[in-house]
Amino acid sequence: MCVLLVAGPNFAFAAPPAHPAPRKHHARVVEYVDPAKDDITTNDDPVVRQIAVDALGHEKGSVVAVDPTNGRILAIVNQKMAFSAGFEPCSTIKPFVALAGLEENVITRDTMIRVGKRRYMDLTEAMAHSNNKFFEAVGSQLGFDRVQKYDRQFGLGERVGYNIPEEQPGWVPPSPPSFGGVARMSSFGEGIRITPFQLASLVSMLADGGVQYYLQYPRTDEDRQTFEPRIRQQFDIAPILPDLREGMLAAVLYGTAKRSYDPDGEQDLGKTGTCNDESVGGRLGWFVSYADQAHPKIVIVVLLHGGSRIISGPHASEIAGRMYRSLYERNYFANNDANHNSQYADSVGSQ
Prior knowledge:
This protein is an alpha+beta fold.
């Protein structure tokens, strides 16, 4: 079919512009910094530290790595940020709200909660995709008093380290936040100030079956030689942990943390968090995780801060994924097993 357009006597076609309008390009702004420039490095595991520094690159962020079996801090990259007064936890608060909901029989792993007009989710899917509506509902059913009780029991608002004078206690609000109440407190951590050390302590507790160790950061040869784990408290949560871990594994396999997945290496479990933090300005990207599920060997907390849209939980999980891959390639996990076996043999031989 051929269509012929004919202009009438009073109609004129617009002339093409002499110069085409320039396209607007929205550049992705990334802050390039040296996050490790002011760090004291002598107290860190050199292998873990170098891998963390390489993975973080020149991004404005911090990495804290901990041995979940004894609470020993392995590395702190960007110590100034890690030792600051705390940040909004964003969605990394969700596993601990879920833990409170499971413990209080508000939910089970199979509880279906309405998250949309014709959409329902169970705990695993809500954790995998970090669904806010699900955790707002759980928090609302728990109520502020119980949410605050569990936050404080887990160590929020308190120092979780032993003899770490730079550590800050963070903050738990004494009443429901004015913006969003307990619902938003349970989905974004509204009103809470949390440190990477507190998150590392909490994830270590999940990895170690409910045992929460004081975090320790040995800084002298004597401290390192005489190091002994110190239990802060022990929670009887082993029966419900599989329900929680399934969601953290799903987040890595196909959810918001899938950038951390390494099909050939150690399997990590984790939770992302992304939000705007008005107290410090800009965006936050969190990823909290441990590897592996059967025999946890390391907890990694990644925190990013800046104004770019790239600052997000999924991007933080990508950085952690680089660390897990590098650790695996350098046989860190195998060497760790050998070291533990050697220490065990030495202790048995001395009895």
